[in-house]
Amino acid sequence: MTQSLQSSNESDSTRAKILELHIQARVASELKKLQEKAAKEFEEVTKKISSEEPGMERAEGDQAKDLGRESVENDVLELRKKLQSRKRLAEIDEGVEKAKSEVVRCLRENDRRPLDCWKEVQTFREEVRRLESVWVEKIVR
Prior knowledge:
The protein is mostly helical. It contains 5 helices and no strands.
């Protein structure tokens, strides 16, 4: 066998090149088959879509859209009524509410520079800590 390889006029690099060309040819043929298959599927889908009546779909879609919008509006109204009818378990502390409104006011005034509101945020945190400590004292007693 070694003698037949040595007596062959093909070198290792020639055999490698031939093998590489053969592999490239097979890859190219498989790629061409896949492209043809994809093109056929695309044409079938395009024909299917174009054969459907567009007027019917739009009318049904508009009705569904209107029904969906109305039902969503009704759901929102019902939820608002439920939220308004719910009783609060406890009123929010006046200090916490004031600190919260100060943070909101500051953030609205400094919408491009929210870090300027650090004092208001710190005040809010202190009020919340105070409220938490009062709650813990109630629970412990």
